[in-house]
Every structure is written in structure tokens, then in C-alpha cells.
Write a structure and sequence with these properties.
The complex is a heterodimer.
Chain A lengths: L1 H22 L32 H36 L2 H15 L3 H11 L7 H27 L2 H9 L4 H42 L14 H13 L5 H24 L4
Helix pairs in contact in A: 1-2, 1-9, 2-5, 2-7, 2-8, 3-5, 4-5, 5-7, 7-8, 7-9, 8-9
Chain B lengths: L5 H27 L4 H5 L8 H7 L6 H13 L15 H32 L7 H8 L3 H16 L6 H17 L3 H17 L2 H8 L4 H35 L4 H10 L3 H35 L3 H7 L1
Helix pairs in contact in B: 1-4, 1-13, 5-8, 5-9, 5-11, 5-12, 5-13, 6-9, 7-8, 7-11, 8-11, 9-11, 11-12, 11-13, 12-13
Classes of the chains: A mainly alpha, B mainly alpha.
Chain lengths: 273, 311
């Protein structure tokens, strides 16, 4: 119980920190100050500066504002679809199962990154953003999530489990929402949602990094915003080209670690007793 | 067992539809974009001859004409021409050049995954190690790939794109793909979970009592699920290959697809996405065949009363 509470507290703390970063993100980076170029955390607190002396804190804030909302939205979306998969299995209709499987086969049969790139290309440049790509990613992840939730529902007994609880006099809403979703599907649903949250964060990092590397606009945010991928790219130059930007790499990896920690702690918090 | 054919049937249907569905959806979406496709490649304000270009690339007769022409050509190995990445060059040539890199990368990345799966099935990899694999698997492919790329630059300097460096890039890319994003950890835990739940079946206990090897008894029964897991792993690797190829400078299909996406080269993206869809369809067919063979094997087995009579 203590471990579960501790995990929940850590996840909540990290989420609050990320939301805090996102909500305080400036619309534009501050003006250049070349005297502070590549300054360390001592000269430009708390994380140091970039090649133009601008604080890396602003990169962290803007990156959080790009990723936090869509990642949480995608996690919620996949959680809903996963719950729907579990509940539909409790209905016990073979035709519904076959239809879900057919949809899952088609959606799950393509490498997700390929679908994302095709979608990214087709989204008009004026409407670009992470949210549509994040929701698409969640949709592609949904068949697996729904299948796992359905397997849990099947282990419970599916339609027979529902019948048994109804025979005890429980209402439909109590049977489905409390007994099935909250007590039994919760660990799977929360884990799947956490995984998608993490994957969407990594997707944003990946797409933005590739765009930064090719000196192109990102598919996930406007040119006025910086992503955490910019920090990683800046940090990469410290290893590959010997630039004094090691502090950017530490910050970039630290932010990735924070999101990973939040996802793992959330999963751990919701584990079955 | 009565409806054993539903799952493989659905998979075969999905496999048949994917290679025609994917280009169909992309074509429909291209025409759904604001503006004419020919004007997207060659805006009349800055580029003369838009109408001639549209006629030459079959863009002037609407989406159905373009789609049907493209699909019938694709069945003959013709994937049209690149619109922007290598303007005018046959996409089939670009795919032909880049496919070996991606195939090698994915096959090399499959090596640790297969070893992990075998280790988990035979019990050579202890369950205690799962925590370590899981922790390593949390690192995204991007982070490992950019560290690998930095290592190559530091190690080879000006020769970072020479033959030896490219071999190292391929090996590092395969290691990154095979380990990061939970690829190895999922393979090990997935296969272990599968065999552990099967080991609880009565027939396995009976096989052990008869002095038979449990693995040989379990393998036919877990084969469909095992193939399904491996199909998912291959798709995962193909998905991750895009990031790894671009970051490590490997000129594979993923790199080509990324270039096509950046430059809005519909010709390249259409062909690359269809190639991925066809590969995925083949994997679906393999899984369906394994499921059918297993089901046939089970159907041919003697029923319990008959077996009791024989005994």
C-alpha cells in the first residue's frame, strides 16, 4: 500500500512540475545575449544558456508546452478505447469480437511511424501540431490495448461475470464501471495509457530531432517554439563536435527521464493488488 | 474450436486488402488537400508547365484514374516517379537502392530479439533479469541513436561516412533497434509469459510424467501466439528504423520515407508506404498459415474418448 502511495506521489509531483513548465512557457525565446553564449548553470541559472546566451529553461518550458497536452490527450484517448475493448468482450458477441479483430488487424498491421509520417505530410502546414499525430498514434495503439483489456475481461468470465453480478442485484453502471473497469481493468488501462504518454513524448522528440538535424520546420510545433529535441541536438554537438553544450544534453536527458519516471510510477501506482 | 477459421480468415482478408487500401487512402487524402496535386509540386506562380506535368504524371484525370493506373503499374514493379526527392527518377530504383540497408538493419536487430526469445523459452535467461532489460528498454531509440552517431563522429572524424564507418553505423543501428524502446525486454517477457502460462496446462504435466521434453510438447500449441508476437516485433523494428536510419545517416527505406515526407514527395511516400504495407501483409499471411496449420493439426488429433479407448 505504501509503495503504491509513494509511486502515486512521485507521479503526481512530476506531473505538476511538467504542467508548471508548460503553463509558464514564454511565447518566444528571450533576446540574444552573446556575452552569455554557452554559459553554464552558474552564469544563466538554473540550466545554463544556448549559443546565443538564451536560458535553456525557456527551451524546457516551451518543450513541455508542446508535449504535455497532446501526450495526456493521447493517453486519455487510448484509455477510453481500451475500456471500450474490455467492456465489449463482456457483451460476449462473437460478431463484435470478429469486427474488432478485423479493425485491429488493419490498424495494427502497419508500422506506426510510417502512418505518422504519411499523416504528417498530409496535414497542411498551417494546421501542424502534435495533437493530431498524438491522437493518431493512440488510435494505432488502441487495438493492442483493447485486446489486452478484452483478455482481462475474458479471464473474469466475460458475459457470465456480468450475469453473476447482476444476479446479486448490482446495477449495470456499478457492474461495468466499478467491478469491471475500476477493480479489474484499471491496471491494464493505466499501463497502456502511461505507455502511450511515453511513446507520444518520444515521438515528438524523434520527429523534432529529425527536423532539427535537417534544418527544417518540425511537424509538431511552430517555428517560434523549441522542443526538448533542440536540447538533445545541442547536447549531441558537445559529444560529436566538442561544443561546450554538455549542460544542454544533461537537461534534455533529465526531461526525458522525468517523463519516463512519471509513466513508470503511474503504472506502478495502478498495479493490481 | 468451431470458429477456428475466423482469426486466420480475418488476417488473410486484412493481408489482401492492405496493399490496395494503403495507396487508396493516401491517394484520396492527396486529392483532399487544398489545391490541385500538380499545383502542389509545380505552383503555377513560380513554375511553368503545370498542365503538361499533370498530364505526364497522370494527375489530370482525377484520383480514381491516378490510383488505378498506379496500382496496376505497381503490380508490374513500376512505382511511378519521384516528385521532389530525386525529381523524375523512378521510385522503384530509389526503393531498390535503399531496401538492402533496411533489410540488413532489421535482420541484424532481430538477432538479439530472437536470442532473447529462445533464452526465455528455454529458461536460460532468468526472470530476475527482466527488471534490468526493462530499465534499459525504457531508453528511447533516439537517445541511443544520437549517442551512437556521436561515437561514430568522434571515432572516425572526417571519415565518418567511409565504408568502415558505415558498417559501424549499421551495427550500432541494429543494436539500438534491438534493445531500445523495450524491443528486447518485450520479446523476453512476452515469450516467457507465453510459455509459463502454457506450462500450467495438464498436458504438459502429463508429458513430463511420460519423460518427454515439455518444450517440444508446448511448441505446436504456442506457435500461433509466438508468430503473432514476432510479427509485432518486426513491425516495431520497421517503425523504429525510420528514426535510427535518419539519425545514423543510413540510406534505407526509412530515410527515403523521411526525405519524401519533408519534401512532400507524394510519389516516394506512396511507394514507400505501400512497400511497408505489402511487407506487413506478408507477415499477416505467415501468421494466418501457422494458425491454420495448428488448427488442422488439432482437428486431426484423436478425441479424448477415442484416446481413452486406445489406451
Amino acid at each position: 500500500m505504501m509503495r503504491r502511495q509513494l509511486s502515486g506521489a512521485v507521479a503526481a509531483l512530476v506531473l505538476v512540475a511538467l504542467l508548471g513548465l508548460a503553463l509558464t512557457a514564454p511565447a518566444h525565446l528571450s533576446d540574444a545575449n552573446r556575452d552569455l553564449a554557452f554559459a553554464g548553470p552558474g552564469a544563466v541559472p538554473p540550466f545554463g544558456g544556448d549559443q546565443l546566451g538564451r536560458p535553456l529553461l525557456q527551451y524546457a518550458q516551451q518543450g513541455a508546452s508542446v508535449v504535455v497536452g497532446p501526450a495526456i490527450g493521447a493517453a486519455a484517448f487510448v484509455a477510453l478505447l481500451s475500456i471500450a475493448g474490455g467492456l465489449l468482450r463482456c457483451v460476449g458477441d462473437q460478431r463484435v469480437d470478429a469486427a474488432i479483430q478485423a479493425l485491429g488487424e488493419v490498424l495494427g498491421a502497419l508500422p506506426r511511424m510510417v502512418v505518422i509520417l504519411v499523416a504528417a505530410m498530409l496535414i497542411p502546414s498551417g494546421s501542424r501540431g502534435l495533437l493530431p499525430l498524438a491522437l493518431l498514434w493512440a488510435l494505432l495503439a488502441a487495438p493492442g490495448a483493447a485486446d489486452e483489456a478484452a483478455a482481462v475481461a475474458e479471464r473474469l468470465g466475460g458475459a457470465r461475470f456480468v450475469e453473476a453480478l447482476r444476479a446479486h442485484g448490482f446495477s449495470w453502471s456499478r457492474v461495468f464501471l466499478y467491478h469491471i473497469v475500476l477493480l479489474n481493468l484499471r491496471p491494464v488501462v493505466v499501463r497502456q495509457a502511461s505507455e502511450v504518454l511515453l511513446q507520444v513524448t518520444f515521438l515528438e522528440l524523434g520527429l523534432s530531432y529529425l527536423a532539427v538535424q535537417d534544418n527544417q520546420s518540425s511537424f509538431t510545433h511552430s517555428d517560434s517554439l523549441k522542443s526538448w529535441a533542440d536540447l538533445l541536438y545541442m547536447g549531441y554537438t558537445s559529444i560529436g563536435l566538442g561544443m561546450p553544450t554538455g549542460h544542454a544534453l544533461v537537461l534534455g536527458l533529465g526531461l526525458v527521464a522525468m517523463v519516463t519516471l512519471m509513466a513508470k510510477m503511474t503504472t506502478s501506482m495502478a498495479k493490481a493488488r | 474450436m468451431a470458429a477456428w477459421w475466423i482469426r486466420p480468415g480475418v488476417r488473410l482478408l486484412a493481408a489482401l486488402s492492405l496493399p490496395v487500401l494503403v495507396p487508396g487512402i493516401i491517394t484520396a487524402l492527396i486529392w483532399a488537400l487544398p489545391g490541385d496535386p500538380a499545383e502542389i509540386i509545380c505552383p503555377p506562380a513560380t513554375c511553368g508547365g503545370t498542365a503538361e506535368l499533370a498530364a505526364r504524371w497522370n494527375l489530370d484525370a482525377g484520383p480514381w484514374s491516378f490510383y488505378s493506373e498506379w496500382v496496376s503499374s505497381a503490380f508490374n514493379g513500376e512505382f511511378g516517379r519521384s516528385w521532389r526527392v530525386e525529381q523524375g527518377l523512378p521510385v522503384a530504383d530509389l526503393l531498390w537502392e535503399s531496401t538492402p540497408v533496411t533489410v540488413t538493419l532489421v535482420l541484424l536487430a532481430l538477432v538479439p530479439i530472437l536470442l532473447g526469445a529462445v533464452g526465455a523459452a528455454t529458461g536460460l535467461i532468468p526472470a530476475k533479469a527482466d527488471g534490468v532489460f526493462s530499465a534499459v528498454g525504457l531508453v528511447p531509440a533516439l537517445v541511443f541513436a544520437l549517442l551512437g552517431s556521436a561515437m561514430i563522429v568522434v571515432r572516425f572524424g572526417a571519415g565518418a561516412f567511409g565504408d568502415e564507418a558505415m558498417t559501424w553505423r549499421l551495427l550500432i543501428g541494429a543494436a539500438v533497434l534491438g534493445i531500445s524502446d523495450g524491443a528486447f525486454a518485450s520479446a523476453v517477457s512476452g515469450v516467457r509469459g507465453l510459455f509459463q502460462s502454457e506450462r500450467n496446462q495438464r498436458y504438459v504435466s502429463i508429458a513430463i510424467l511420460r519423460g518427454e521434453a515439455p518444450l517440444a510438447n508446448m511448441l505446436p500449441n504456442v506457435a500461433p501466439a509466438l508468430v503473432g508476437q514476432m510479427r509485432a516485433r518486426v513491425l516495431h523494428l520497421l517503425s523504429g528504423a525510420v528514426v535510427v536510419e535518419v539519425v545514423l545517416g543510413l540510406t534505407g527505406v526509412g530515410d527515403l520515407l523521411w526525405a519524401g515526407t519533408l519534401l512532400q514527395d507524394f510519389g516516394v511516400v506512396l511507394a514507400a508506404a505501400t512497400a511497408f504495407a505489402t511487407l506487413s501483409a506478408l507477415l499477416l499471411v505467415v501468421q494466418a498459415i501457422v494458425e491454420i496449420v495448428t488448427a488442422m493439426h488439432v482437428l486431426r488429433a484423436p478425441t479424448v474418448p477415442a484416446a481413452v479407448v486406445v489406451a
